[in-house]
Amino acid sequence: MNKKIALPELATEQVNPNTLDLDTCSPRRIAQKINREDFQAARAVKEAHKEIAAVMLAAAQAYANGHKIIFIGAGTSGRLGILEAAECVPTFSTKPSRIIGLIAGGKKAVFRSQEGAEDNRQKGAEEIKRHAQKGDLVIGLSASGRTPYVTGALEQAQKTGARTAFIFCNKNAVTAHADLPVYLPTGPEALTGSTRMKAGTATKMALNAITTGAMTLCGKTYRNLMVDVQATNQKLITRAIGLICQIAQTDPQTAARLLRSSGKNVKTAVVMYRKKVTRQAAEKLLKKHNGFLTEALHD
């Protein structure tokens, strides 16, 4: 899988025979054709369940051991990594410094394409030197599987002693420095070469599974509920109160009081109510069980 081939030969760069008439279709027909192609993104992720699970476990291990999870990519791939890292903070109460996203071209590339930045292999390596340490997990993201910025980052990550994963959509990817390769066979795009489409969708689906699964393995969910949610605005406060009501089987008024007295921590509030203990005792019990609410409640 390490033989580098020319860009026009990549599967994601091929002309899609199913959309050759795209420019003459009605709006509804265009929507139908694009949607039909989008199903391939889900099929591609299905084919990579085993590999995605391996990255999920590596991410959980890195996080549980106090290390970082770092996403790095260029263009759409880089933006998806940044989005994933940003969303982990309110969803799972992770520290922004523990799950981060890096993109070729820096912060300005999030909002406007910085063409040429992805070709800088050395810059990718420098970013990893700056942000990664031994024990971290570096997840490279590249639809083509050969972006120099990303491959340079993965090579440096291995030298640093970090574990490496690589999510890509072409089987001829450069995987020499990927401990955990994840191939998503999305095929030709509806709009030739526009990998923000199926390739981007499949990548986002894989990232959703990796972060959600990793945080679940770290005790940040209860059943399928986001009990580590940060109650930082009215919507999230309402959600937190609802979670306490649902899990503790109590009324909204009591749940709101528990949320306040627990320091806005859903798991602590639930343990306080269910075990009839103080905030300090609840926090101690949760710490004993590494944050797993199920185990704390069964103690």
SSE order and pairing:
Blueprint: H1 27-47, H2 49-64, E1 69-73, H3 75-92, E2 99-103, H4 108-111, H5 121-131, E3 137-142, H6 148-160, E4 163-168, E5 180-183, H7 198-217, H8 234-248, H9 252-261, H10 266-275, H11 279-288, H12 293-298
Parallel strand pairs: 1-2, 1-3, 3-4, 4-5
Helix pairs in contact: 1-7, 2-7, 3-7, 5-6, 8-9, 8-10, 9-10, 10-11
What order do the SSEs take from the amino end to the carboxyl end, as H and E?
HHEHEHHEHEEHHHHHH
Q: Strand sequence of the main sheet, in spatial order?
A: 2-1-3-4-5
Helix fraction by DSSP (H/I, runs of at least 4): 40-55%
- Report the average pLDDT across residues: 96
Low-confidence stretches: none
Find the structural class using helix and strand composition: alpha/beta
Report, as a whole number of angstroms, the end-to-end distance: 49 Å
Q: Key terms for this structure?
A:
299 residues; 2 domains; Helicase, Ruva Protein, domain 3; five-stranded parallel beta sheet; alpha/beta; 52% helix; Rossmann fold
Please give a structural write-up.
By secondary structure, the protein is an alpha/beta fold. The protein folds into two domains: 211 residues, Glucose-6-phosphate isomerase like protein, domain 1 (Rossmann fold), CATH 3.40.50.10490; 65 residues, Helicase, Ruva Protein, domain 3. It is built from twelve helices and five strands. It has a five-stranded parallel sheet with strand order 2-1-3-4-5, sandwiched between helices. Strand 3, helix 6 and strand 4 form a beta-alpha-beta unit. Helix 8 crosses helix 9 and helix 10 packs across helix 11.
